[in-house]
Amino acid sequence: MATFPVINLEKLNGEERAATMEKIKDACENWGFFELLNHGIPHDFLDTLERLTKEHYKKCMEQRFKELVASKALEGLQAEVTDMDWESTFYLRHLPESNMAEIPDLTDEYRKVMKEFALKLEKLAEELLDLLCENLGLEKGYLKKAFYGARGPTFGTKVSNYPPCPTPDKIKGLRAHTDAGGIILLFQDAKVSGLQLLKNGEWIDVPPMRHSIVINLGDQLEVITNGKYKSVEHRVIAQTDGARMSIASFYNPGSDAVIYPAPALLEKVEENKKVYPKFVFEDYMKLYAGLKFQAKEPRFEAMKAMETAVPIETA
Question: Model pTM?
Answer without folding.
Answer: 0.95
